[in-house]
Amino acid sequence: MKYKLEDIVEVTMGQSPKSQYYNAEGKGTPFLQGNRTFGFKRPIFDTYTTLVTKEAKAGDVIMSVRAPVGDINITPIDMCLGRGVCSLRMKNGNQEFLYYMMKYYMSQLLNKENGTVFGSVNRNDINGLEVDIPEDIERQKKIARYLTMIDDKIELNTDINNNLEEQISALFANMFGHFIDSLDNSDIKLGDLIESVDNRGKTPPLSDEPTDYPIIDVRALSGNSRIIDYTNCTKYVSKETYNNWFRSGHPKEYDILISTVGSLAEMKIFLGTTGCIAQNVVGFRTKGISSLYLYQYLNYIKNDLVAYNIGSVQPSIKVTHIIKHSIYVASKEDIEIFDSIARDITKKIFANCQESEALKQMRDTLLPKLMSGELDVSNIEI
Asked: What is the pLDDT of residues 193-220, one digit of tens each?
């Protein structure tokens, strides 16, 4: 059945309280100004307000309406809506279904995006979105439950990986933290242990259409996992460009990729087969030392690396500066012990990430087929 969104969904546009009412101590009502703390499906809250201007109820779909437009989450609790978000609530339907419905129709909504510098959508854009959905609420519930089961498994994998990351971090800190913290200076510098894979310079011809050669930029390096999140890669190159353009070559297995512009010192371990380093990323290839030891070391001293920031408008760090940073090199025996444990855990994390990638692809393939009715869920017991 075809509707305009305003016929089936109640939209509440956000309105930010004055900043004098904000706090980070949990006083008052959780508050979202935009999508900064959006999670995989639900946001986390680090800002609160003692004055509520516009309210969303637990279970409402929250959507960013200012750049970047279209990110969506479901709020688990009542919250205050800032100007960068809105809430969506079915007038008579299933909220989980609404979440997936908005994912399905988001590309159409983004076509309405306006703003010369910062994109945005307004109430009229949202209310005027045309959708075609099943009237039967039970069918809506089945579609939502089917897709939710996939997302639940992805979230479980993420939780497992976060725990595994914490185990490696704790092991490293226990084995080497005291020595690093007490290191005043060292004859061994980061540059003695690595060679750089640096493709900064002229921008290659890029495409929005996915290929086997994604551009790995700072967005793909964000998050807690040590594994690159290829779902955050939005630019690609052709095979010809991949083979001929990048003068410093391409990342190899267990290279460390680190961001140098914007969100500084975000880092990942390269375990894929293909990928191109973006201009805001540099690769470190270790020489004679465990890449897992050095990766964990760089994470341990991340604040020190960020302190090399030289950007006044946009944060940036120079590789020529950070390679002069003093490094504590533990005994060969201790590094081998750490590497052995970290390598086994890293393989588990990578396997979970691969499974989650496959699940995301399956979910995104099923979504249009479920929404269009191509896949019939009437006889599925969920």
From this structure: 999 988 766 788 888 888 999 999 998 9
The answer to whether residues 148 and 288 touch, using CB atoms and an 8 Å cutoff, is no
Alpha-helical (H) ranges within 246-324 are 291-300, 302-306, 319-322
The two beta strands, 2-4 and 130-132, are antiparallel
Closest CA to 52 of 18, 84, 75: 18
327 CB contacts (<8 Å, ≥6 apart)?
Answer: 186, 188, 189, 190, 192, 193, 297
Number of helices and strands (H, E) in the chain?
Answer: 11, 17
**3-state SS string for 155-176:** HHHHHHHHHHHHHHHHHHHHHH
pTM: 0.86
212-270 confidence digits (pLDDT tens): 999 999 989 988 899 998 888 889 999 999 888 887 788 999 999 999 999 999 999 99
Question: What does the alpha-carbon distance between residue 107 and residue 22 come to, in Å, rounded to a whole number?
Answer: 34
Domain 165-332 has CATH 3.90.220.20: yes
Q: Which two structure tokens, joined as six digits, stand for 376?
A: 């019939």
Q: Residue 49: beta bridge partners? A: 22, 29
Cis peptide before 68 (omega within 30 of 0): yes
- Distance between CA 313 and CA 305 in Å, rounded? 18
Domain ranges in the chain are 2-133, 165-332
Phi, psi of 49 (to 5 degrees): -135, 145
CA-only gyration radius of the chain, Å? 23
Eight-state DSSP code of residue 340: H
Element (H, E) at 377: none
Question: One fold for both 2-133 and 165-332?
Answer: yes
Fold of 2-133: Adenine-n6-DNA-methyltransferase TaqI; Chain A, domain 2 (3.90.220)
- Whole-angstrom distance, CA of residue 257 vs CA of residue 277: 8
d(CA 374, CA 30): 40
